[in-house]
């Protein structure tokens, strides 16, 4: 139950932040924007890193729960790694980053829940904006860490994978059975 609330709240924070970023200027900015993400209609690449790392952490936690029950959860845990063709050593910084970012976001979410429980006020709104800024800082730190830990060819594969499988277009085609769009086979500009 708490896990579902945490995930739902993270989603709400992302939506609120996305709307605030559109209205107030984007606070998450890439230090070196990739050529594949220069489409202005696409969220900044850091949003994809956030979603990807959060999802990887969920898969790792699920695999740990399966192992505790005596089941093998490695296939699901490792599917994104295998899709990208990363070795265990290549993927180790990604797993470390996903754990670190999830812990940081969980702490920020707890603070946000406490603020929301107190009702709306100018002080509460300022504090919430500070939490969004801290979230952006945490995400940017993980992006910087990964870009310094992985070789450039792995970063290109990682970002292409994130753009392909974590884009709103892909999510829409996956969840809308009446959609006439096919799942993209390559990163669409």
* Class computed from helices, strands and strand pairing: mainly alpha
Gross morphology is globular
Strand content: under 5%
Give the SSE string: HHHHHHHH
Rg is 17 Å
- The total beta strand count reads 0
Portion in helices: over 70%
Rounded mean pLDDT is 78
Tally the helices: what do you get? 8
Distance between the termini: 38 Å
* Oligomeric form: single chain
Largest sheet: none
Low-confidence stretches: 12-39, 171-189
What would you note in describing this structure?
- The protein is globular.
- It is built from eight helices and no strands.
- The chain has helices at residues 2-24, 45-68, 74-77, 79-84, 88-117, 122-149, 152-165, 168-175.
- α5 (88-117) runs antiparallel to α6.
- Helix content is 72%, strand content 0%.
- The relative contact order is 0.13.
- It is mainly alpha-helical and 189 residues long.
Topology:
Elements: H1 2-24, H2 45-68, H3 74-77, H4 79-84, H5 88-117, H6 122-149, H7 152-165, H8 168-175
In short:
With 189 residues, the chain is mainly α. The protein has eight helices and no strands. Helix 1 packs across helix 5 (88-117), helix 2 crosses helix 6 (122-149) and helix 5 packs antiparallel against helix 6 (122-149).
Salient structural properties:
single chain; 189 residues; mainly alpha
């Amino acid at each position: 139950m708490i896990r579902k609330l945490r995930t739902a709240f993270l989603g709400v924070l992302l939506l609120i932040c996305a709307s605030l970023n559109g209205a107030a200027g984007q606070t998450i900015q890439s230090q070196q924007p990739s050529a594949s993400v220069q489409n202005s209609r696409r969220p900044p690449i850091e949003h994809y890193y956030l979603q990807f790392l959060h999802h990887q952490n969920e898969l790792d936690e699920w695999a740990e729960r399966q192992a505790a029950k005596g089941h093998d959860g490695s296939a699901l845990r490792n599917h994104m790694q295998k899709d990208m063709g990363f070795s265990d050593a290549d993927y180790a910084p990604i797993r470390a980053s996903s754990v670190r970012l999830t812990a940081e976001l969980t702490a920020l979410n707890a603070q946000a829940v406490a603020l929301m429980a107190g009702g709306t006020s100018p002080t509460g709104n300022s504090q919430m904006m500070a939490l969004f800024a801290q979230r952006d800082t945490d995400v940017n730190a993980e992006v910087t860490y990964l870009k310094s830990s992985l070789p450039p060819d792995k970063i290109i594969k990682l970002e292409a994978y994130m753009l392909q499988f974590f884009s709103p277009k892909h999510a829409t085609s996956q969840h809308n059975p009446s959609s006439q769009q096919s799942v993209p086979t390559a990163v669409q500009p």
